[in-house]
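sanity check both lines:
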Amino acid sequence: MAHVISVNIAVPRANPAKSTGVTGIDKRPVEGPVEVRAPGPGGSGLAGDKIFDVAHHGGADQAVYAYAREDLDAWGAELGRHLPGGCFGENLTTAGVDVTGALIGERWRVGEQVVLEVCVPRIPCGTFAHWLGEQRWEKRFTARAVPGAYLRVVAPGAVRAGDPVTVLDRPDHAVTIGLTFRALTLEPDLLPRLLAADALPARARARVTRRTT
């Protein structure tokens, strides 16, 4: 059954890779329920979580970040080390969820109350590379194209480890998280295909328009 393995909240760390000087990329699993709600600009959708680089992260279209345990394990095998839940900066570490194959605008029910909508893939940055400490990390992460998904909050509530994840709705298009990531990074010829997704966030849509006109 598709479910949440862990709900992860930031532990602030020094961040020499960005002018903010602090990062919340180190997220650790917490016990018990965590409230989820739509955040303001630059905010996280999870109570107790913290975002510091508000110019590039957080807000309604990046309220919650999900990454699949299966993909963490694949990376761990390649890197030769265990990657604990939350170490990619994800709020929800999932099992049995096809995060890369999720459609833009697809809606998930998590637990009994929370409904989340798939928005955009995560694009790797210098903070992520510094935190992982792996050679050429941004290029390696981009080449694999398994980025995880940012989600917006449609219905608030509480989530906890073990909650089931149910796909409530899948839009009638073929624009997945994986396709979107590839279009925005190494395969710009795919960009026009993204416009079929009505739920694509305005910032991403504007980026597509700029690069295709």
Observations:
- The mean pLDDT is 96.
- The first strand starts at residue 3 and ends at 10.
- DSSP finds five helices and twelve strands in the chain.
